[in-house]
Amino acid sequence: MKKLYLIVLCVFMMQALKTNAQCPAGRYLTEIFPNVIEDSVTYSVPYGQMMNIFQPVGDTLSARPVIILGHGGSFITNNGNRYDDPTIDSLCIRFAKRGYITVSIDYRTAYGPNMFDSVLAIDEVAKAMSDGKAAIRFFVKDRATGTNTYKVDTNNIFIGGNSAGAVLYMHVGYIDSLGECPPNIVSAVNANGGFEGNSGNAGYTTKSKAIINLAGGLNEVSFVGPGDKPSVNAQGTTDNVVPYNCGHPLGGAIPVNLCGLGQLEGAYNANGIYHMSHLFPGDGHVPWSTDLAKLYTVDSMVTIFLYNLVCTGIASVNNVNINAEVSLFPNPANEAVHVRSSQAVSDIVMYDQTGRMVFQASGINRENYEINTSRLSKGLYFIRMRFVDANYVPIVRRVVVE
User: Fold this and answer.
1) I want to staple 277 with a disulfide (CB 3.0 to 4.6 A). Which of 160, 233, 250, 290 is the partner?
2) Which of the four pLDDT bands, split at 50, 70 and 90, describes residue 397?
C-alpha cells in the first residue's frame, strides 16, 4: 500500500510539472534578474503606514506572485521597521530577483510598556493585523481598479514575516472568523474595525495563498484547522522570545499566550496542512539573522515551498521536515570537496562569505559528487544542496578551503 501511494504521488507531481505553463525555466527557483528596483508607497491612508515594494528590473510578466512580509521587533516602537530587519531585506531582494514582487511593510507598533499589559498587548496585535490586511488589499485593489501598477497575480499572494511580523501574519492567515477566537481577542479586533480592520482599502479581499512563518506563533494552536492555508516554518528549539512550545513571549515578560513551532507542527499534521518546517536544534530566536548558513537554509526551503505552490499546484501532499543525511569531506578542503548524501542531489550552489556564488551545478541526480576547490581563495564557504525528491528540505553546509 505504501509503495502504491508513492507511485501515485510521483505520477501526480510529474503530471503537475508537465501541465504547468506558468513558470518559465528557472523562474522562481534561481535569481534570473540581476537587478531590483525599490519603491516606497503609503498603503494605509488612515494610519499613514508605508511599504517598500521590490520589483525585478526588466521583467515583462503581466501577473506576478507577491510576497508580503512583516519585520521583527516585538511590536514595540523603535524596535524595528521596514528598513532594519536584515532577514526581511535579504529575502525581499532575493525573491524579487527570482521573479516575485516582494514587499516589506511597516505596521502600527506600541509604546514599550504597553506590551507588558495583556489587554494593551492584544490590542496592539489587533491593530497590526488590521494594517497587515490593508496591505493585502492594496494590491488586490490596484489590480481590480485597472491601475495594475505592480502587475500582481492576486491568485498568488503570500504573507508572512520574521518574529513579530510572522506573529502578525500567522493570525491574519489562520483566524478565519471571530467565532473561533476567545473573548479578549474578539474585543480587541472589534475595537479596531472588526474582522477586516479599519486600515484602508475597504471592500477588497484579504485572501492569501500561504504563510511564511519565521519564528512566529499563534495565540491558540486551535486556530489551525482542516482546510487551512499551507505554511513554511522555521524556529530555534530554545527560542523563548517567541516560545517554541507555548508560553509568555519575550522571556515571559509579555503576559499573553503564544505557541511556536513545537506545538504548531502537531496541529499541521493533525489537520493535514501542506507545510514545510525546519528546526534549528539548540538555537534561540531568529538564528538566521546572524548566521549566513542558516539564512541560506531558510531561503532554500522557502524557495522550494513557494515554487511548489506557484508552479506545480502541489498543495495536498504533506512534505514535512524531511532531512537527508549529508557529509562533506575533507573539511577543511584543498583540491576538492566530496559530497555524500543519503538522497540523490539535484543541484549544488556554493557561496563565499559575501554571498557571491562561486560554483553551481545542476542536473546532478546522484548521491555522490565532487566539487573542485583548487581555484578558490582560502576561507569559509557555504554549500547549498537541493534534492531530486522535493519532499527533502534543502540543506546548507559550511566548508573551509585552505
Assistant:
1) 233
2) confident
Range of 357's domain?
A: 326-401
For residue 355, give the CATH number of its domain.
2.60.40.1220
Residues 275 and 392 in one domain: no
Residue 175 has pLDDT above 60, yes or no: yes
Write out pLDDT tens, residues 209-223.
999 999 999 999 999
Among 280, 312, 344, residue at a domain's last position: 312
Which candidate, 369, 160, 114, 177, places its Cα nearest to that of 276?
160
Helix axes 86-97, 292-307, angle to 10 degrees: 50
**What is the 8-class DSSP label of residue 312?**
I
Give the CA-trace dihedral at 136, 137, 142, 146, to 10 degrees: 130
Query: Are 92 and 161 a contacting pair, CB within 8 Å?
Result: no
- pLDDT band of 7, cuts 50, 70, 90: very low
The neighbouring-strand residues paired with 279 are 235
Looking at the domain assignment, is residue 2 inside a domain? no
Own/partner long-range contacts of 84-89 (Cβ < 8 Å, ≥24 apart): 85/162, 85/165, 86/289, 87/162, 87/214, 87/286, 87/288, 87/289, 87/295, 87/298, 88/161, 88/162, 88/165
| Domain contains 365 | yes
Grid cell 545542476 in the structure block, residue: 362
Statement to judge: residues 67 and 180 lie in one domain: yes
In the predicted model, what is the mean pLDDT of the chain?
Answer: 90
Asked whether the predicted pLDDT for residue 174 surpasses 90, the reply is: yes
**264 and 338 together in one domain:** no
For the residues 249-276, what does the mean pLDDT come to? Answer: 94
379 plus 283 within the same structural domain:
no
Q: Tell me what percent of the chain is helix, strand and coil, each rounded to the nearest 5.
A: 30, 30, 40
Model pTM above 0.70: yes
Last residue of a domain, one of 312, 336, 364: 312
Residue 15 pLDDT greater than 80, yes or no: no
Tell me the CATH number at 95: 3.40.50.1820
**Are residues 336 and 265 part of one domain?**
no
- Which pLDDT band, with edges at 50, 70 and 90, does 390 fall under? confident
- Strands of 76-127 (E only): list them: 101-105
Cβ-count burial 365-398 (b if 16+ within 10 Å, e if not):
eebebebebeebeeeebbbbbbbeebbbbbbbbe
Gyration radius of the chain over CA positions = 21
